[in-house]
Amino acid sequence: MSASGLRVLLLLLPLAACLPTAVEGNAPDLSGHAVQLTLLHTADIHSRLFPYNFAPSFTDNQLGLEDDFGPYGGIAQIATILKEQRATAGRIVHVDTGDSFQGAVVFNEFDGEAEFRALSEAGLDVAVLANHEFDKGAWNLAQQIDTWAAFPMLAANYDFDDADLPYISELERLVFPTATFDLDGLRVGFIGLGNLSSLNSIYDESNSMGIKVMEIGEVIPREASLLRAQGADLVVILSHMGLDDDIEMARQFSEIDLIMGGHHHVAIDPPLVVTNEETGKRVIVCHSGAFAKFVGRLDLVVQDGQILSHDYTLFPVDRTVPADPAVFEIMREYQEQLDYDYNLDQVLGYAETALTRYGLTGGDSMLGNFTAEAMRAYPGVETEISLTNTLGIRSDIPVGNITLDALYNAMPFDNTITTMFLSGREVQELLDYVAYRSSERGCSSQAQVAGIAFTMDCRNLVAKDIVINGVPLDLDGTYELATNNYIAHGGSGFEVLERNTTQVDTGVSIRDVVKEAITRYRSLPQSDAGICVEDGRINPVF
After folding, report:
1. Average pLDDT score over residue span 92-115
2. Which of these three, 333, 365, 388, is where a domain ends?
């Protein structure tokens, strides 16, 4: 429904519907009246607090992010959109559905302080706690929330009460299951749901924080009932569980009126409308993208706890959006320190074409192959094979000068190389798991390899025709693997690596290894030499 259509609807309502009567406590009685509610939505900002360059995808273009309008993103630019939109509506809430941390050097240096400080100045009202907020540990997270977050953090499905660790008790104090906003007589309750599939990326020293994860089948009915008892007219889920889970929740739980989601880095315009299987109610599922590329605005017409209609606008964040002065001044402090410490404009090499993180077929990719090859060949590592997780590479490197900033954007994680010895059967199990995990993501490979070629059968969840450095896999053989310490510790479900007892963490930064390789080759890709190109070493079969 267009904004003009929304205005027409309101004009056609009886005059009394537009003039709620005051009740005790000066809040209007909205019974029988249709009113407008606006939700501003950000998600998965991933520390893209400064504008950056990249080549928008076809999907980005379709959603309104135009080519040659970079640099894109930036929290000061997002703040301008948020403040402008806030000024146009009465009942309005800005929600963020998680992962504001991790994805650029500003997080590596300042541990999340800049993200929470800037979002607070931008006027964020409520956020869900997500997996990457834990990337520098639970104690750091507690400190950043306590010091800089001027908004409530929600996670109803994380129970912090079972552990005696000091940082857990701090999170118990600082993180809430729900929040309620009274918006001029309209009470809106929010339930926060943190991510489950990536929970094994949450760590603190021993890689276990004692957080108990509760079943959403218990959490949603219980928390929704409490919100209704407190007078909530609407129950909104703030979810970092991913689009598939959001759709399933909308189908399954009659208590939900609306879901604002994140985690899968997708923007949907218009939002999905899912029919609840129990009540037939139409539940809106809204995702507004990632990496500071868009801000979403959802306008609702609500009457007696029912959403009568909705309208959605996705605002692209590009060079046409000016910086908000207050947030810009905050970020200038961090930029000056980063310039001094890192020299982010330092040129490492040159990209003749965009160096892509995903392959055209869903198999191996340019940056994936380049990273895996650099890992296994690095002096002092020098293993037969290498495997790293695809999602450890977070963005393409755009065409033109490859700067240190571009490298940090592509590889923000402070992962190190871990080596270990695997039997041939363990290699088979490892690649079978890659096929299984990839099948859950459209048969897009969730690992990148070097010294290995195989067919990734997503239909039967197995790896076939495995070849190691040109020789068929020997199930009784032994192979030395270079991988990253995150999946070596079982991250992303790589249990076959986690249980290996021959692990050695070299302490060598994977990002530094890739940096050295870029400076050595200078110009990429080098197609004739097979450097930084897709070569079909992972062959997906659906």
Report:
1. 97
2. 333
